[in-house]
Amino acid sequence: MSEPLRFPAEWEPQAGILMAWPHAGTDWAERLETTAVCFAALCGAITRFEPLLLLVPDESVEADARAALTAAGCDFSRLRLIRMPYDDTWLRDSGPITLREGEGFRLLDFHFTAWGGKFEAGLDDQIVARLAEQGHFGAARHQRIEFALEGGGIETDGDGTLLSTWHCLHERHPDKSRAEIEAVLKETLHQHRVLWLEHGHLEGDDTDAHIDTLARFASPSRIVYQGCQDTADSHYGELQAMAAELRALRRTDGTPYELFELPWPQPVLDGGRRLAASYANFLIVNGAVLMPVYGDAADAEALAVMARAFPSREIVGIPCRDLIWQNGSLHCCTMQLPEGLST
């Protein structure tokens, strides 16, 4: 008889975080120097709390990464560098989605299409298989699934409830009905139910409304979400509608979720292009929450909201203006690995 499978929540104990270092062959090339400083700060913060597995494509990039990480005070005793080719650094979407399988683990390897074919992704779509083949996760089973899905597009409470946005999944699978998509999600991720949000979109977001920029589980009973109270802002209507949807959601016992609304930062522009500056794109690590900040007056309030949502964890702000230039923030470029997984 097969072992039971479970998709653990992000707040459960972790073995480490998986990332990939930016280099001249990625879309970061134009601003590589400032990007490296931002990545190094994030890596340094992660190694304060747990191990970090960091992909680098070759010896030269590894040397550059080591220099930047040293300057950022990274704990090298918690760092493991892995050489592997890749197209870009968004490991939340191209990395493994790990299920617990009895006492072991299963690495789900969904087809990565670079958000519906927007960019080249041939190498990124091979990352999970390469990691498994090279033995980086011990005896964990590798399962390839020919269904387009990104880790940033789903949230789980660890107890069988999945949260996602209909727009994103429909864009990936326009030929499938909601019932068909929901059936695949339940079967592959071993979830009992799927909660859909119909609203929510950020300008500058090319993921088609990933849930991890909008609303996140903080516990089985708590949801943190990106709000907007500025009636003059173009996001006001969509995010107000999303907030109403969240208020209407119910837990399996019929009770409402406790909601924590994050403040709305002022627009961050790059040559006239608005960037997706969301506070909801935070990363939970052992004992802490790393959350993006943007040098905005709302940063302090966002940190305070997060402290109320995660009262037992240290809240650490990470400057992320350089990350959102490429349309993602710190959760987008990281993937947690559950405790017990060989790394």
Automatic annotation (TrEMBL):
Q: Which GO terms describe its biological process?
A: putrescine biosynthetic process
Q: Which Pfam families match?
A: PAD_porph
Per UniProt, which keywords does this protein have? Hydrolase
Q: Is tRNA processing included in the keywords of this UniProt record?
A: no
Q: Which domain of life is it from?
A: Bacteria
Q: Does the keyword Transmembrane apply?
A: no
Q: Which GO terms describe its molecular function?
A: agmatine deiminase activity; protein-arginine deiminase activity
Cross-referenced PANTHER family? AGMATINE DEIMINASE-RELATED (PTHR31377:SF0)
Tell me the protein's name: Agmatine deiminase family protein
Give the source species. Arenimonas maotaiensis
